[in-house]
Structures are given as C-alpha cells and as structure tokens.
C-alpha cells in the first residue's frame, strides 16, 4: 500500500498547530505561575512560618492532603488547613470549596466529622483562576490537535504511527501531555504546567526540525503486529518517564529551597520558588508517576524480547539498544530501591530517577542513531 | 580502626569469592560444547556405535546402497573439492585405497557442499578410483552425525565388517594414522 | 480534629502498644541499616553473619544494581565478540595500544565476563537472601491476626468519628460486618477490659506480589542458563535450489551449549526453492526493501511428507522446537569455467557478499583449483542494476534489473595445499599472476576467453541466496513465563496497599448510644489512594450504622403521632 501523502501533509500541519497551541498554553501557565496566586501563596507561606516547620513537613500529597486535613480538622478549622495548603499543598484554592463540603454531610443533617471526599477535580480546575482556565483550554485543544496529527499519520502510512524516531517522539509527547493533564488536574498541580508543557514543546520542536522523517513504509523487519505492542508500550512508558523526570527536577529545586529556608539562608515567601509545590508532594508525585511507568517499561522490554525472537532468532542478544533499555530498567529499579533505603530517600533517589531518564534519552537519541546494531530503525540519517 | 580494616579485608575476600564463582558459572554454562576435537577417536570392540544404513546417489548418478558394503571394512571419507585439507590428504587416500583393495577394504567418499563439475574435476585430477556419494543436502552426513560427531571436512570414518564404527580421524589424515585405524578395525596386513 | 501525623517519628517497638500500629520503620529487615548496629564480629561465624547481613541489605542491593548498569555500558559501546567479531578485529587494528588492555578486562565480551557474572550472582544471592526470610515472615504474618486497636485512634494519619445511637458493642458489630464484607481480616477483643473495638487488615497480596516479582527474576536467570546449556545457535547460507539437513557439518557456524550432542538436533531438512525480494520502486524511500519471501520445502524427519513454507522476516519456521529464521540475503552469480580442451571444471552458483546494503553491489571470489594448466582464481564484483560511471561499474538499484559482473582473473597456485585454512571469500594471490590489467565486465550469457590458454569463464546467470539462523533454546518458554510472572508480581505490589482500619466505640457522654471513632493507615502509602478508600469506607460505616438504627426507630413515630395528635 502506498503512502497517503495528503493525510501525511494533514498530520504535519496539525503538528505545527499543536506546537503553536501548546506554546500558548505554556504562556498561560507561565502567566498563572507569575501572576496567578501571589496573595494566596504569600499568605500561606506566612501562616506556615507561624505554624513552624511542622506544617511544611507534614503535608501529604496535593489537595488530597489539603482536603484531608481540612476535612479531618473539621468544619471551620480553616486556619491550620489553609496553612498546610498554602505552605505545602499545590493549590490553596481547593481549600476553599472543600470546607463547605465537609460541613455538608452524608446521612442527612447530622454534623459528622468524617474525612470528606474531594471536590470534583474539574470543578476545582475551573475555579483556579482565569490563567489556569486559559491554559487548560489551550492544553486540551492542543492535545486534540496532537491526537489528530498522530492518528492521521497512522492512516497515512497504514500502520501504527511509531515506526521511526520522529513518529516515536511525536507519539510519546502526546502521551506525556495527556498523562500530565490527568496528573495536573487530579492533584491540582497548576504550577507544574509551565515546566512539563514547556518540555513537551521543546521535544516537539526538536521532532519537527532535527529529526523529521517523511511518511513512508517500514522495512520488512518492522512489519509485524509486534510494532503495535512493543513500541506502543515503550512510547507510553517514555512519555510517563518524561513527566517523572520533569517532576524530579522540580523536586530537586524545591528541596534545595526548603533546605535553604530551614537553614535560614533564604527567605520563605519570596521569589518564584514558593509557588511550586513542596518537595514532599513532588517526591510523592514523582514516585507515583514512576511506579505507573515502570511496569509498562518492563512489559515493553519483554514484548521487545518476544519480537526480537520472531525477527532475529534470539530473544536477547545484548544489542546496544537492548542493553541500554536494560540499563534504564535497572536504574529505575534502583530508584525504587533507593526510596526504601535509609539515607537514599530524598535527593539521592531523585538523582537516580534523572539518571534513569538520561539513560533512556541516551538510548533513544544516541544509541539508536549512532551505534550500529540490529535495532537501528530510527530512520534518521 | 582495626575493625574497619578487618571489615574491608573480609569484604574484599567476599568479592574475590564472588569473582571466582562468576568465572566458574561462566565456564560451566557458556562454554561451547565443542571441546578441542581430538584428532583420532577409537572405539573398542563391543563399544562401537552402529553406522547408519543409507541409500544415496553417486557423483555419476548411480545409486549407492550402504548395506552392500556389509562384510567388508569400509573407509567413509567426507570431503569437498573446495576444502584445503581434503585436497592435501587426497593422495594418501588414493594410495591406501589401492593398497588395501586386495585385503577387502572398500573406500566410499561423501562429497559435501560441492557441485558435480568441481567434484569430478577434482577426482580426475587426483586419480581417485572409488565412488563418492553426492551429498549436497547433508543427508548422509546427517545420518552419521546422529551417531558420531561429524562437524567439518575432512572426516574419515572406518566401519568394521559388522557395520559398526571402529574409529574416526578428524582433519587431514596421514598414511600411518589411516593404516593404524584399519588394523584396529580388524584388517590383517 | 486530627492533625496529619507523620508516622516516621515513632519507635519500632511501638507496634505492640498501639502507637505505631504498622511498625512503619520496618521497611528494611532488622539490623541491616549499614551494619552499624552490631559490634565487631567476635568469631569466624560472626564474620560470616556480618557479611551475610551486609550482602542482603538494601544498600548493597542498590550498589549492585548500579554496578550492573555501569558494567553493561562498555558492552554497548565497544564492539562485542559475540555479536560482531569482525568489528572487534577492526577495533584492534584501529587502537593497537588500548585494545589488548581492554581485552584483558574482558571488555570485548562483557556479558560473558567473570566480573559481570560476579555482579549478577552477588545481586541474586542478595535477592534470595532477602526474599526467603521475607517469605517466611509473610507466612507468619498471614497467620497472626491484626494488632489490637490503639487507644487513641485520632493520632493515626486518617481518622474520623461519628455518633451512633447503638450501644458500643452493637456499633462495633455493625462496623465489623461492613469491614468483613470488604474482605478485611478482623480481630475482636479477647476480653472486655480493653473496650469495644475491631481491628481490620487487608492487602497481604502486596508482599506476595513483591516476592513473586523477585523470585520470577531468579527464574529468568535460571531459564537463561538452561538455554545456554542445552540450546544451540547456527548459521547457514543457502543458495536457491539447494538444501541442507539439520546437522553440525551442514552449518557455516555452530555455537552449541555445553551439554548439546549431535543427537539433540532435530533431523529436519530444508530446501530453498526460490527467494524473492521486492523493493520500493518510487518515492523518497526508493530502494528500501518492501518484502522478502523465501519459499522453502521442509521435512520434519527423513521419510516424512514434505511441507512448503513461506519464510519471511518476522515469520520463522518452527520444526520440533527448533526455529529457522530468515536473516539476510544476497546474490550468487553462476559461473562456468572450462579448460582450453573443453572440459568443465567449475559450474556452480557462487555466493557474493553485499558490500552496500542499499544498492546490493556485492563482492566475491571464484576459486577453480582443478583448472588446467594452472589453477584459476577470480575476484569479482556483482551489480544487480548496472550503470557505468566513468570507468567503474556501479549499482543503481538493489533489484536485479540489469545484472552484470566484473572480474579480475588470476592464474597460478591458489595456496590451498599450504596447510593454512583459507576463507572461501578471500583469494590469496601471492603465488598467482594477474591475467589482465583491467577488470573484465560480463553480462549474463557472455564468455570471457582467458589469455594464455587458461580456458574460458562464462557468466551464466545469477541465483539468490538466503542466510538462515537456526536456533534451539529450551529456556525460552520458561524465561517468558517467568517474565510474565515478574510483571504480574510487580503490578500486584504496586496496586495493592497493605492497610489497617480500626474502629472503637465508647459510650456517649450523654449516656445514649456511643461515639464511634475510626482510624486507618496504609503501610508505605507513597503510592497513595488510601485517603479515598478511607473516606468512602468511613461514609459506608456511618451509613451502615444509620441503617442499623432505623428499623429500631420506626415504631416510635406512630406512638408519638397517636399521643401528640
């Protein structure tokens, strides 16, 4: 079957549109970051100082923590609840609507001090301020355009649209964007938007310029239904690890800031750094992201081994790409072990997380393109 | 201090043991099954594997049935015109074949991985008088391979009168090696 | 009402008195925090025990994981003996000083090096040493009931309370039935002194998943070793029209496992009937291969009926668990050499090796040792789609649209009797003289009469050849099963949380009914989600309590309406 050049062109056009829309989303996120909640954050930070170190350290994840503390604190206990959310939670705005929810009880009319369910995430999103609304709208529209670009590429080439590096990066950034959108809304982590979507824009820009490959059929070695299984899994896992890496970098920044505040070397409440979530939350968010991606990566490696056996006659031959996929797996396993080892839980674990993603990127960009082996399917000359 | 030093020593000792274990595991599991082939393998009477029975076509197209060789000592030589050591041993084989014909020894060649034109040119040049099976599909080779190790050319197998394999020579054979093996197989001088 | 309370601040022994109901510091086996807990070992056995504790600690596992990753790096950037011996040779010639040193450390065969084996052996020993005791501990904890409910449930990370109109014992019973309905394991007070409470625990499968994952990895390692011992790999180059039987002598390369014997090879035969490759004719990817088809006939055992099969990449043949794969292909031009007297001394297809996989311009050698009066040798270049560029012949397209061959002829002594084995793809011209100064080009059917009465060579035509990989790996299926088990264990350990919920009821201050407090915590709840579960569970408990009250209240309103008019 020949390539449908018309659809291929549609795909390219939609991808350019995606880039532009994502850029606008990044700008809106930046706007929220800069102008969105200065008062709330400053007030929260002041209250945090008033409550001492304990409030900052005891925050649990995101708004779940904020709501949990607000709910468990009972109706009307907005003081410590807001302090917790302001100092360490990702969004103080959800602290507001959740308090009346805690008072509105199930069971009809009785004052019940039960932990309240969370405010529906989308409602919280819409109430988070005009900048966030704009950014979310652009993000969603951008993701839709992105999906159209990926799907039309697939129809243009009559196969799953991840057969070379350009298609792979296009698809994985789509996964990353969708996954991040879910994480951001669920945990009300608006401040992360500018970083993750910014990284997505950078990756897509690279895809469009440096590694662009025209639509074409695949060599016989790649003509197999395993493409849909193995590469799909690797695409998903890479997209998820991409988000984890950005979160990891943010953790290191937040943790450094927290340590400096604790040591008295920095003023809390100043600067950009107070606007990003606390290091404890970022740590948990990163962990949850990695444990979402790790089984998918494991499955992708196994599926790759099964496919290698079909195509090359052996399920594992220490081909450079195979070896680096193994190294990446071992490094993420080390990250998971580090989180359970005394003395390795904080920064060290996140360095390992970033090392794992570096290994993944090295595998994708350097090994597949420059080191010859059986797995040289990047299509980039 | 002293404790820390002893701990280091013990840890290093453990690492050394681990390396040794690693070496052992590697040698045991990843070494190849192809140990250095001895040049000569001789089987004692009573421990000789049975040679396979086969029918095949010769280089000239005539049918060959191995069962017709029962009752005689047969030298089966795997060769190819492209094979350097086979070319080197060809004169020896031709001489021994002539000398031992009267003592009831037959020679049968098995030509592998060859074309009839090249093989016949070789036979003409070397003056080989005994027939050869044209085994382009490795069928006869495979039959023997299930009983004894046949991995490369030349390989010379001596089959005794009862159809059992008395011994093998791997690589280019010499006059004394081949005649020695023939006497092991029961050929009287 | 409740502060968020970080459980990490509690002591390890707090599990019994209820202040640390989860023994949350128990992420590592006791005493493995770097070995600083014990004093210096007193004896040899003490040293062994110390060493063992070091080996099975998380820290050592972490270090070994790093070493494993680090050790794999040279195996991917340096050429490896197992996959590309030619590249190793090239590396030696390119780096004559450095290469022997690297070879000393086994860096050209990393994954078969003893030091790499030492790393994963230590890692798996550490794994087994950690997993086995944990298995026993899991079995033990599966038998012991959940701990007693702490006195002060409000100190737990998640808690709440609701009033109940039922007496404490009944309220707790209602709560217990709800929790039991969710398949929690329950524990009730043995005596009445400790009040009315119920402890519930769930999520043992998490540790099962964790252990399954680690043991399955061990299974993968054992399967790989099994395959290495009993399996084999072989290569075979097969020209159209020829066939071979699965036997050692037939293979071009044979790599058997340690315990492989000739009788293990399944006695199948394969004949290559024809091979076709199609290429993209137009567009940006012109010349890229589109499909390969190797049409073969095979018999599983001698005497069997032959079967045909279309062997393709990604579509191997499976005969008696031995698999045959299509790896590569090329051209084999057919030459016929006759002497000056007309005798045919060579007439066969000669495999040429593609030097350029884009255009399939291929190199090869023809050796005619039985030519007369002198032995003949030819170095040739085969071009499938010939175009003349200046003086040279080049190939424009990989398909055989316009095949041609260019030969340089030599006469003399091929050196085949020298005792030094030669490759069939290399010509040693030291004892030969070149017949003509320039190469001679031939189209199919053309003949070149050699100077000096050396005979004639005819380019009859061409055939194609395929290279096959024949492999047998009995460890392959076990490795796959263990891999899937590992994945299953991983998912279990990530998705399931071990969690405990406690319910306590005390009589209400007013004397009527009781106040029910619920508390809950999840062990290592970094993966989250327990807040939601606890919230919904609490709501359900409160609702069940309310429902349990309602039937008892129904008769009252009728009485009141009668009296109250």
Helices and strands, with pairings:
The complex is a heterotrimer of chains A (381), B (189) and C (565).
Chain A: H1 5-36, H2 38-51, H3 53-57, H4 62-73, H5 78-88, H6 95-103, H7 121-126, H8 130-157, H9 165-187, H10 193-209, H11 226-262, H12 279-312, H13 320-338, H14 347-370
Helix pairs in contact in A: 1-8, 1-10, 2-5, 4-5, 4-6, 8-9, 9-10, 9-11, 11-12, 11-14, 12-13, 13-14
Chain B: H1 2-30, E1 40-42, E2 55-57, E3 63-65, E4 73-79, H2 84-100, E5 105-112, H3 116-126, E6 132-135, H4 139-145, E7 155-159, E8 165-170, H5 175-184
Parallel strand pairs in B: 4-5, 5-6
Antiparallel strand pairs in B: 1-8, 2-3, 4-7, 7-8
Chain C: H1 14-17, H2 44-55, H3 58-77, H4 85-94, H5 98-104, H6 114-143, E1 158-164, H7 168-181, E2 185-187, E3 196-202, H8 205-230, E4 232-239, E5 243-245, E6 253-256, E7 269-279, E8 289-299, E9 307-311, E10 317-319, E11 322-338, E12 344-349, E13 353-354, E14 362-368, E15 375-383, E16 386-389, E17 392-395, E18 404-412, E19 432-434, E20 440-442, E21 447-449, E22 456-472, H9 476-495, E23 499-507, E24 514-522, H10 530-553, H11 555-564
Antiparallel strand pairs in C: 1-24, 2-3, 3-23, 4-6, 4-22, 5-7, 7-8, 8-9, 10-11, 11-12, 11-22, 13-14, 14-15, 15-18, 16-17, 18-19, 18-20, 21-22, 23-24
Task: Explain what you see.
The complex is a heterotrimer of chains A (381), B (189) and C (565). Chain A is built from 14 helices and no strands. Chain A has two domains: 5-26 and 125-370, no CATH class; 38-90 and 92-121, no CATH class. The relative contact order of chain A is 0.11. Chain A is mostly helical and 381 residues long. Chain B is an alpha/beta fold and 189 residues long. The model of chain B has no long low-confidence stretch (mean pLDDT 87). Chain C folds into four domains: 28-144, no CATH class; 146-203 and 497-551, Alpha-D-Glucose-1,6-Bisphosphate, Chain A, domain 4 (2-Layer Sandwich); 228-329 and 470-485, no CATH class; 330-464, no CATH class. Chain C starts with 13 loop residues before the first helix and ends with a helix. Chains in contact: A-C, B-C.
